[in-house]
Amino acid sequence: MPLILGTNSIKDTGYNVDNSLRFNSGSTDSLSRTPSSASNRRTYTISMWFKRSSLTSDNGYSALFTATSGDSGIFLNNDGTLEWYEASGQLDTSRVFRDVSAWHHVVVAFDTTQGTASNRVKLYINGVQETAFDTETYPNENAEGLINNTGKHAIGVRATSTNMAYGGYMAEVVLIDGTALDPTSFGEFDSDSGIWKPKDVSGLTFGTNGFYLDFESSGSLGADVSGNGNNFTVNNLTATDQTTDTCTNNFATLSPLIATAYGSELSNGNLDCVQSDVRGRFHNVTTIGASSGKYYAEIKLTGGSNHVLGVATDASFTYASTLLTSGFNYLGQSGTLSYSYYVADGTVYVNGTNSSHGATLTTNDILGIYLDLDNHKLYFSKNGALQSSTGIDIPTGYDYFFGVGDLGTGDSGEVSCNFGNPVFSISSSNTDDNGYGNFEYSPNITGDGSAKSFYALNTKNLAEYG
Fold this sequence. Notes:
By secondary structure, this protein is mainly beta. It folds into 2 domains: about 20-245, Sandwich (Jelly Rolls), CATH 2.60.120.200; about 255-465, Jelly Rolls (Sandwich), CATH 2.60.120. Helix content is about 5%, strand content about 35%. It is built from 3 helices and 32 strands. Strands 1, 3, 8, 9, 10, 13, 16 and 18 form an 8-stranded antiparallel β-sheet that branches. Strands 11-7-6-5-4-12-2-17 form an 8-stranded antiparallel β-sheet, with no helix packed on it. Strands 19, 20, 22, 27, 28, 29, 30 and 32 form an 8-stranded antiparallel β-sheet that branches. The chain is elongated, with a radius of gyration of 23 Å.
């Protein structure tokens, strides 16, 4: 498994997006607005960045942006394809978008005044126009769509109901009313890496019903900062759903692809986890790993028992499917695997060898995990108190990922993970030395004789230390 997956702007060059909004499909998080008057229904542009968490939804679709009774808008289908639908037209991509570790940028340019049918709707992903479609139907010339009508417009759910709920992250959501723009109005290719990255859109002309949602105000998550005042109503979203996991700094989350294989349930942007009750050690690991540098994470126990919390190596992924298909679900049986974890009873396991290590953990305790890949040491803390000043030696030669699981000898464990964007309330906010993350306790160690700085596991820190 690679250390950085998919499309991410990892270099700190140029425009930075500060915030995104985290949508939980289980609670039908959404934003909604009903325009007071109709505007240009023949020409518009929609632009948004998204990172998926859930790969399925009810009714077979996840709604990114929809409008009124005709279900016009942009959808993610359960087969992984992306769909645009409006009036008499429909485009379903042939390729799929199932990478839960990557941010994607989608632009839909709609202009039915064009004489050539294929020019009336153009769909771009990460700066490149999509040309291969399973379904390809274009609206009639001068046809009026439902976007920019006086019906309800919604982000994250179907406009006509609360189904088709989207699970994941969104950033830089824009509607341009009256102009069909190409993606270069919203992004550009990085000259060094070739990666598609966002650019400042604040100077665009947004039109009467146009808007720009940057999610930078935690107290007004639906605020339109275009100058138009076309604010959205917030539904089931709170200040903790504002994150710094964005298209210019991608943070680690748990991977639903691995969780599904072990029957675990993830929610809230793949940061809340209910473990499956099987003896599987790590049922869930992060989407991002590292081979060098120092990284910090916090895991809060929210219920159940038999928690397993720590780090696993890339070798675990090689064996995961083999162990499952051969009747085993005990990651780490093979001597070629490397893993280290802290059990709620205070025991530490390193490659199958257990020893007494620290205090027991119970519900609402926060375990801090300090992963030092420069010196190949692992440290744990309980509610900010370091459990060993000498740390634990971990093997070299591996890429390491944060992981959670349970021993499967009773109740399944429930946890909330904080890789820098917590889903639980923080009482004393701490960032790493680069200013990234929001942690309950300090990411740094000062009690082992020499101060060590640890960092949130995100692409900007990996670009510097990984």
